[in-house]
Amino acid sequence: MSGLFSELKRRNVFRVAAAYLVIGWLLLQVVDTVVPALHMPAWIISAITLVLILAFIPVVLFSWAYELTPDGLKKDSAVDKSKSVSSQTAKKLDVITLIAVVGVASLFVYQQIFPVSHNQSEMSGKPTKIQGSTQDVAAKSIAVLPFADMSIEGDQAYFADGISEELLNVLAQVDGLKVAARTSSFKFRGDEHDIVEIGSALNVRTVLEGSVRKSGNQVRITAQLIDVAGGFHVWSETYDRELDNIFAVQDEIASAIVEALKLKLKLNSQVGGSQHAENGEAYDLYLRGRELAREPSKSGLTRAIQYFEQALVIDPDFAAAHGAIASAWIWLEDYGGIPSQDAFDRAEPAARRALELEPNRADALTAMGFLEERKYTNDEVARDYFERAIKANPAFIEAYTLYADALRDLGEIELALKVRRDAVERDPLSGFLQSRLASMMVGLGRYDEAQQIIDAILLTAPNDTYAYEELGNLLVTQGRLAEAIPAYTFLHENRPGDPFAAAQIAISYKLMQMSDQQQQWLAAARDRGAGNRWELSARRSIAQWSGDWDAMFRVGQLYLAKTGTTWQGQASLGQLDWEAARSAFQRTLSRLNYRQGDLANGNVLEALVGLALAEKRLEIDSWTVHANAARVFAENKLVSISLGNWPNINLNYTLAQLAAVDGDVEGVVKYMQGALDEHIIEYSFIKHDPFFIEFRDEARLIAIAQQMEAHALAEAGKLEPTP
């Protein structure tokens, strides 16, 4: 054995191998710099790396078999040992290797002092644009891809996804670092996507990818940061830890990335060092729940809550589990048919407990914002919660969508639209967020833009239920009821547990005077959760258009305070009980913290209009104050958004009601014609709406009602007969 070692040494095999490795490494560093600068394809780097690896063994074998002599290369066996110059060759190889080592060290020091730029526009100081993007790429930006599950059983994808998402949330706290949101980043699961493609789609300069191998209580995490332009690895590391120490690894990885990107790490004290589970098993249960809760289905959210509750049995002070429970109940109220009060009563204590443990927890802040806006009608408090949530975690997209809804309801349309666009920019591949932007466009009367967004979603995801939801809403708003029915039917069939579509179909059939189908679909909405908000909203509309004021009053008693009390007031108007109506509307305005003389907003509009009519009938002079406040708001919004479908109230119809309160028949006709032009089909107004009692014989209004009814019946005629 010692003889073999001596022979390897004599033939300079070790020196050749060392020189090859050092020079190869130096060559790769040069290539990493030159290829991007010359705008050459990134695969060249991979190809050269592969060639160098494959050539290593032949070079070593060649150094064993041949010797470099003054007369050229000769087989070692043909060289006279007394004339061998291998010792001189060894000295030359030592010098070459030393020079290469100095070169590698110098290049490393240079790159640390002057980080390598791989984009000519960056070198010139101009903003970089990735091909296919319409936005400048942020100088420091990153997408966190879903880590690969490398566990032997292949059953730890939920855990790998959870690690990726937690890293994303930590990185989102870093000042100056733009982080692509989860939904879009996780679209690139697997190995079939090119790094340049990912960077272009997500508008980022760097990508973090990795793998997780979990076995029992042991976890191995491998992470690597890749430069999009050059395709080279900026940083990589492997961590072997016990599950209970997983949180320290997440912070280590985040800190390493921040250092690699030359950013200053300023993590929020409640995020970078976020309050984690003290127990690895609790954390594992939490991640299982998170995996189920990502798509807001009734079954998934319900099972997710069970996992979160199991985690809390093990660790009662696990803030993330409390926050996740609050968030799940909020979405169950919307997508799961849970009655609002029931869901809110479960969400609130969970959210408050999460914030006691971790005051800047984004999911809990978002849940409290929603509760303050919907349950307690404290709009300014709700706004503060939403803004705190976005500041705490800019990558927490749920905060953006619920914040935009609240702004829309207040009538702050432009700001709501900005928040919607910000969400899409952060999560550009999310069909949900794109559909919510489309919804805003529908409300603004920008139907072509809404249709373009919906078409784009369906082009890449033909069965996207969010797109079908907004398609149905768009078609109804355009008066195309017959076309809306199939869209809503698809939604109902493909989103089990959600009563929304069934409720909308019931309303459409009511307008088309198809009572059997109306009752069938209203029952379908109820079957997905008796007393859910979509069922109650449908029952309210059907009762109002039928003049069934007792039924409408009962529905108002079942609904949340601010809206339900308004419905009770409207039912009392229909019953000509002016005192009861006035009392109900005053309670609504009191709950909304509205005082006489305040500027109106979207939340108080219906109550103000109803109060104006009740007080005029009671000959109370303040009716004019309420009417004027409502009119100013409605007229301003009607102008600013071009059309009057805002958000669920047609402003032309509202202005016609106010004109009726004033006794202005010309105004009533003008605005009702505007409502007709905007495809409003509430033809029952001439018979049942108490605002128009004095105008039921007005020929022009009768004609408008007849046109509305004729349109509805024509839509019914377009439907295919049911078997």
Describe the structure.
The protein folds into 4 domains: 2-116, no CATH class; 141-260, ABC-type transport auxiliary lipoprotein component (Rossmann fold, 3-Layer(aba) Sandwich); 280-491, Serine Threonine Protein Phosphatase 5, Tetratricopeptide repeat; 549-718, Serine Threonine Protein Phosphatase 5, Tetratricopeptide repeat. It is elongated and about 115 Å long. It is α/β, with parallel strands linked by helices. Mean pLDDT is 83; it is low at 111-135, 264-274 and 642-647. 64% of the residues lie in helices and 7% in strands. The strands form 3 sheets. Strands 3, 4, 5, 6, 7 and 8 form a 6-stranded mixed sheet that branches. The protein has a two-stranded antiparallel ribbon with strand order 1-2. Strands 9-10 form a two-stranded antiparallel sheet. The longest helix is centred in the first third of the chain and has 28 residues, at 86-113.
